[in-house]
Amino acid sequence: MAMLEVKELNVYYGLIHALRDVSFEVNEGEVVALIGANGAGKTTTLHTVTGLLTAKSGTVTFEGKDITRRPGHEIVRAGVSHVPEGRRVFAGLTVYENLKMGAYTRPKSEIESSLASVYQRFPRLEERKNQAAGTLSGGEQQMLAMGRALMSRPRILLLDEPSMGLSPLFVKEIFSIIEEVSKAGTTVLLVEQNAKKALSIADRAYVLETGKIVQTGRASDLLNDDSIKKAYLGE
After folding, report:
1. Who has greater pLDDT, 37 or 81?
2. Which pLDDT belongs to residue 186?
3. pLDDT computed for residue 234 by the predictor
4. 158 beta partners
């Protein structure tokens, strides 16, 4: 059984049919990438999985349980954590306060050990723990958003455009951290416009075009697929 199974999702924004019968699955321990152009429906897919949007039809199943219409906080408690596009850190709160916000579903007795684990993975966050999140660089804010999501100790981490707006150096660092998180046992669903980077670390990938999945396969095969190269890799 897949850890996360999405079946025939249909999502509308008013009259706009944003997702059309979208189906995919993520197995435990995998890194699965969703790639596609702007407006393809990648962010809408993540928002529907995590309860921020409601599907008109279709189902989302996590570890055998239907979470399609469960509220967001219950989905986090079940083990699904979401790093949104654009970081969305609480700018006026400190790094430490932002991280604590990520642990709101955990027992208080576990917060310190979760913090220690996040600081070990992101030493820069510990150095800046008393600094306002809004004063961090874009790359540091991305680390904070990831650290905040990891505070809930998720079974699966959903990442939305983690490289957006970052310098090449930070992009390399963020993708290295995603690989580390995966190797440490967290399953990853990655939405990313930098298709080359996403496919280089993913096990499998799905290609979204105008709300429909048009191609799927092993990430290594898609990296060498001529149509993918032409459409998404700039080759």
Report:
1. 81
2. 94
3. 62
4. 82, 189
pLDDT digits (tens, 9 = 90+) for 90-118: 888 899 999 988 887 777 777 788 888 88
Buried b (16+ CB within 10 A) or exposed e, 194-232: bbebbbebbbbbbbbeebebebeeebeebbebeebeebb
3-state secondary structure of 96: helix
- φ, ψ (nearest 5 deg) of residue 62: -120, 120
Sign of CA dihedral 128, 86, 55, 10: negative
Q: What one-character DSSP code corresponds to residue 169?
A: H
**Residue whose structure tokens are 């150095």:** 127
Tokens for 80?
Answer: 């699904």
Q: Which of 216, 203, 218 is nearest to 24 (CA)?
A: 216
As beta bridge partners, residue 80 has: 156
Euclidean distance between CA atoms 201 and 2, whole angstroms? 20
